[in-house]
Amino acid sequence: MPKPVLIVGAGLSGAVIGRELAEAGHVVHIIDRRSHIAGNCHTARDEASGVMVHVYGPHIFHTNDDEVWRYVNRHMTFMPYVNRVKTTSAGQVYSLPVNLHTINQFFDRTFRPDEARDFIQSQSDPSIGEPVTFEDQALKFVGRELYEAFFEGYTRKQWGCSPADLPASILKRLPVRFSYDDNYFSHLYQGMPEHGYTEMVARILSHDNISIELERNFVRSDAGDFSHVFYSGPLDGYFDYELGRLGYRTLDFEEFQYDGDYQGCAVMNYADADVRYTRVTEHKHFSPWESHERSVCYREYSRACGPDDEPYYPIRLSGEQALLAQYVARARFEQGVTFVGRLGTYRYLDMDVTIREALDTARSCIRAFADGLPLPAFNIEP
Ligand SMILES: Cc1cc2nc3c(=O)[nH]c(=O)nc-3n(C[C@H](O)[C@H](O)[C@H](O)COP(=O)(O)OP(=O)(O)OC[C@H]3O[C@@H](n4cnc5c(N)ncnc54)[C@H](O)[C@@H]3O)c2cc1C
C-alpha cells in the first residue's frame, strides 16, 4: 500500500488540495490544530440568536474566475449578496468605496460625474511626483480632505503606523468612483454560502479517501509516515521560528449582542483615529435571506501579532521580505513538503485566489506523483 498524503490545515487550501488528491485516488489525512475545519473562513451559528457568525471576521465571496465559481457552487448553494460598506467619519455616515454620493455628501455639492472628476483632480497635491508612500499616493489621488476623512485614521489603526511609513503600492488604484455604484467589489460573481463556509468546506472534505483529525498540531517528525506533506500552516512556524518571526497583524473581536437591528448594514467602518476599533460587523446582515430578532456584532481591533496570537494579515514590508527570503531558501532544501496557502506562502489571499492556487497545485502535484517526479517546495512563488 502506498503511504497516504498528509495535509496540514483544514482551511480552504487544505480542503481543496485534499479533495483533488482524493478524487485522483490518493489516500489523504488532514490535521488541524484548531477544533474546527474551514480555517479562517469558519462560520458558526450563535446558539442564543441562531445568527450565522463569521468567527474570524467578515468573509464575502467574490471572483472573476468561472471555474472557481462553479467549484464553490458544486458544493454549496450561493445566495445573492452584494457587499455594501459604510463608514463613520467625524460624526457622519458615508458610503464606501468613496463614490459620487460620498463626494457630494462630504463637500455638500451636487456634482455630476465629470464635474466631480475635475473637482477631485483639483484637490490632488501637485507637488507629489512619483508617490513613494501610501500617504503620497492618497494625497495625489484624492487630495488632503478626503485622505484625512477616510484613509489616514483607518490606515493608521489597521497597520499600526503612519501612512507615511507604508509603501505607495498598498493603494494601487484610484480609490474613488465617479458614479453612485457602491458595490464594494467589481467582480463578476459575488455571493454568500447558504449554510456558511464551514458547511461548504465539510462538503468539500466529504470523500471516502479523506480522514480528518482536529486539535492536532503538526511536528516535523510526523512527516515520515506519509508520502508527501502539503503544509498550509505558517512558513516560519514549520522551522520553529529559528530565524525569527515573520510579522503579522492580528485582530481582536469584542462581541456584543443587541435586540433588533444595531446598525442596518453588515460592515460599518470607523475612519477616525480616536475611535480605537476599525469596524463593527453585524453578522445577521451577511444572511439577508434569514430572519433573526437578536443580533450578534463584533467590534474589530487591529494590533501587532504576538507569539500566542492568530496571524491574520502578513505585513510584507522590507524587513519581513528579507526574513521571508531566508525562510524560502530553507524551504527549498526540504524534501517531501509543499508549502501552500496564505500562511505557507506568507501572502494575503482572497478565498477565490486560495481555491484557484489550490486547484493548480493539486493538479500539477497529481501529474508529478504519476510521473514519479519530486514535488516542489512551492508551486506558487511566495
Ligand atoms: C479578517 C479577514 C477577512 C477576510 N475576508 C475575506 C473576504 O471577505 N473575502 C475573501 O475572499 N477572502 C477573505 N479573507 C481571506 C481568507 O480568509 C483566506 O483566503 C483563506 O482563509 C485562506 O485559506 P487557507 O487554507 O490558505 O488558510 P487558513 O484559513 O488560515 O487555514 C490554515 C489552517 O492551518 C491550520 N494550521 C496552522 N498551523 C498548523 C499546525 N502547525 N498544525 C496543524 N494545523 C495548523 C490553522 O489552524 C488553519 O485552520 C479574509 C481574511 C481575513 C484575515
TrEMBL record:
Organism annotation: Aliirhizobium cellulosilyticum
InterPro entries: UDP-GALP_mutase (IPR004379), UDP-GalPyranose_mutase_C (IPR015899)
Keywords: FAD, Flavoprotein, Isomerase
Cofactor(s) needed: FAD
GO cellular component, one term: cytosol
Recorded superkingdom: Bacteria
UDP-galactopyranose mutase C-terminal domain boundaries: 149-348
Record flagged with keyword Cytoplasm: no
GO terms assigned for molecular function: flavin adenine dinucleotide binding; UDP-galactopyranose mutase activity
UniProt xrefs under Pfam families: GLF, NAD_binding_8
Presence of keyword Repeat: no
Name the record gives this protein: UDP-galactopyranose mutase
The protein's Enzyme Commission number: 5.4.99.9
